[in-house]
Every structure is written in C-alpha cells, then in structure tokens.
Specification:
Layout (H helix, E strand, L loop, with lengths): L43 H9 L8 E4 L2 E6 L5 E7 L9 E9 L8 H12 L4 E4 L5 E6 L25 H4 L6 H9 L1 E9 L5 E10 H32 L5
Helix pairs in contact: 4-5
Length: 247
C-alpha cells in the first residue's frame, strides 16, 4: 500500500442509468483499485470512517452536504476530498476522491518518486499527455473488473470527474462522442503534475472517479429535481385556475 503522504489515484466502474424516484439505491459497484482504502460506491459513513484512519489529530470536515475532506496542514498541505451522490440516492455514495499537494521548495518531491509510488500500486500508465505549461497528465485506465488496460483508447484523456461536479445536480450533458465514452466506461487513474523544474514537483493532483456510477446517480437526481419542478409548476397552475375573478 502506498503511503498516505506519497501518492493517490483516480478510477471508475461501468454502470447503468438510474431512474427517478424517492430514496433510490444504486447497484453496488465492483471493487476496483482504491485510493487510501476509499473507492466509488462506498457509503458516506464508511468513507468518512476510512478517511479518518489517516490522521489521529486532524478531523474529517464536511465541505457541504455533498462532500467532505481531510486537510493535513503540514509543510506541503496534503488535501483529500471525497464527493458524494445527491438525493434521492440513498444512502449517499462516494463517486469521486481527489488528492492534492503543493510542495515547499525546502521539502520538495521529485517527479520520479511520485511516479514510482503510483506505478508500484497500479502498474505502468496506460496513457500520457504533456500540455507544456498546462502540466503533464498520466492515466491508468481499467476495465470494469479492475484490470489495467495497457493500450487504452486515447479519447479517455478527455474524461474528467472534476468537470462533472455541477452535473451531479443538473444531470449529464448531452452525449457527444467523447462524453459517451467517458460516461459509459471510463475507469482510470488520473495524475496531473505541475513541475518546478525538470525534476522537482511544484504540485500534483490526482482523482479517483467512477464516471458511470456518477452518471447513474446524477440521472436519478436530475429526474427527481425535474419531477419536483414539474409538480410545483402544475400546483401553481391549478391554484391560478382557482383564482377566477368576478366581473
């Protein structure tokens, strides 16, 4: 197991779409590679308990009703954030886990040290993209059983859980070719490196995300919100029809 202060990852598992309804439970996810013992499909309660195991003196905090985090205020500020599905998904489930560190020049980490830690746990990366000034991105892509794909479709490099956060309420975007692939099957570790120089890291960020699971949960929430909005609209119309004036 990679040390909490050394590394993390991003992954997800294939799922079908949920339907609208009151207090709906999504199917359980397959148990694929984890991040600090956390994985998509865990309940909120189990996820909080697991994250708290990584500190005896700093406590997990709610960011909102839909996420919580653990912030270790050490020299390199280590942050782990866990995002949750929204009602009527019940119980709330973990759909994304993110981790980031910013390095003090006096306590830096090398690029190779971080990559070695991630590779020790997940294997050789499936894809890599160098954005120049925009950072270096590495992807570990898995199939739904958790098997690492050595030759993954390059289109998976367009997949991102962090860009899906607002969709957890509003529902998935219309499925263009790229979105359709991400929404249906992306399972992967995403690592972004910002370099101080050729060897030393300025910062890194990683995310573990189950996009199909997230899409299923977001669809449930979207349909429930739409149903509530439609009912409120109809109630308003019914009331308006009763307000007949006398002339």
């Amino acid at each position: 197991m990679v040390s909490f202060r050394t590394c993390s990852m991003a992954l997800l598992v294939s799922f079908g779409f949920g339907a609208a309804g009151v207090a709906q439970t999504l199917p359980a996810t397959s148990h694929t590679p984890d991040l600090l013992g956390l994985y998509p499909g865990m309940t909120k309660q189990a996820g909080r308990a697991q994250l708290q195991k990584h500190s005896d003196d700093v406590y997990v905090q709610n960011i909102s009703g839909n996420s919580f985090n653990l912030v270790l205020p050490n020299q390199n500020r280590d942050i782990v954030t866990v995002s949750l599905t929204q009602p009527p998904n019940d119980p709330p489930g973990v759909w994304m886990i993110q981790r980031s560190q910013n390095f003090d020049p006096g306590n830096a980490m090398s690029k190779e040290t971080l990559l070695e830690a991630v590779r020790e746990k997940y294997g050789k990366e499936s894809l890599m993209s160098d954005h120049g000034g925009g950072g270096q991105y590495y992807y570990w892509v898995f199939d739904k059983s958790g098997k690492l794909l050595a030759n993954a479709d390059p289109r998976y490099m367009n997949c991102s859980g962090s860009l899906f956060i607002n969709n957890m309420t509003n529902g998935p975007d219309k499925a263009n070719e790229s979105n359709a692939l991400c929404y249906s099957s992306f399972i992967g570790v995403t690592l972004n490196l910002n370099m101080r120089d050729a060897q030393l890291l300025q910062a890194y960020s990683l995310e573990l995300v189950n996009m199909p699971y997230a899409v299923a949960a977001a669809t449930v929430t979207m349909n429930a919100n739409k149903g509530a909005a439609d009912k409120a609209r109809q109630d308003a119309i019914d009331q308006a029809n009763k307000n007949k004036p006398k002339f």
